Amino acid sequence: MRPLFASALTSATLTLVTAVALRAAEPALTIAAIAAAVVLLSWYAQLGSDDDQSSLDATSPAVATTLAVVGRRPWGTILPCWTAHVVGAVAAGFAALALDSHLPAPLAYDADSLVAAAVAGVLAGLIGAWATLAVDGGGPIALTAAPVTLAGILPLGLVGAFSPAVVAGLATAELLPWDVAGVAAAAGLASAAVGAWLASVIVPANQE
């Protein structure tokens, strides 16, 4: 139960940080704030990892998928993990919506393109899978910020594509259309799985 609570709390925190950061004075500040939150929460989540399993799945449904594909998390834990992430993100989305009138207007962005949402999800998922496996293998924790930075190159409203749960939270907060959030989330999960599979083919477990 504790890992599920951690997953829900992490996605809730990242959703709130993203919703507030989208109202920063400059896009660079938005990306920096979200990236810093991702790195900090990833560092904390990683503390529970061991030689048999990784606890980085607490950071995102895409990360959980990546770890399951390479055998670092049991597949039986993935659906509850996804559910916990989405519940936390949607709850935070309602909180952000309630605070909307007390916050500055969000930065102008055109995040209504389904094509852009798919591209953001695919890029964030692939880069996120690589970053997850690198960090889980002992690489620098700062690599977890890579999907955020990459997603920020696209329309700023899609910066949340680094996590399928966060885009659902942003849609709840009415900062993204639901169809855009759905496409970004689906593309992110699928590409995370593909990225993890490709990594396992290129670098077999016994050579890591």
Cα-based radius of gyration, to the nearest Å: 16 Å
Q: Count up the domains.
A: 1
β-sheet strand percentage: under 5%
Termini gap: 31 Å
Q: Architecture, CATH level 2?
A: Up-down Bundle
Q: Find the CATH topology.
A: Glycerol uptake facilitator protein
Oligomer: single chain
Figure out the total of helices. Answer: 8
Q: Identify the CATH homologous superfamily.
A: Glycerol uptake facilitator protein
Shape: globular
Biggest beta sheet summary? none
Spans of 5+ residues with little confidence (pLDDT < 50)? none
- Binned, the helix content reads 55-70%
Describe this structure in words.
This protein is an all-alpha fold. Helices cover 64% and strands 0% of the residues. It has a single domain, classed as Glycerol uptake facilitator protein, CATH 1.20.1080.10. The chain has helices spanning 2-21, 27-46, 61-69, 78-99, 114-136, 146-151, 164-172, 178-202. α1 (2-21) runs parallel beside α4, α1 (2-21) packs across α7 (164-172) and α3 (61-69) packs antiparallel against α4 (78-99). The longest helix has 25 residues, at 178-202. The radius of gyration is 16 Å and the shape is globular. The chain starts with a helix and ends in a 6-residue tail after the last helix. The relative contact order is 0.19. The model has no long low-confidence stretch (mean pLDDT 89).
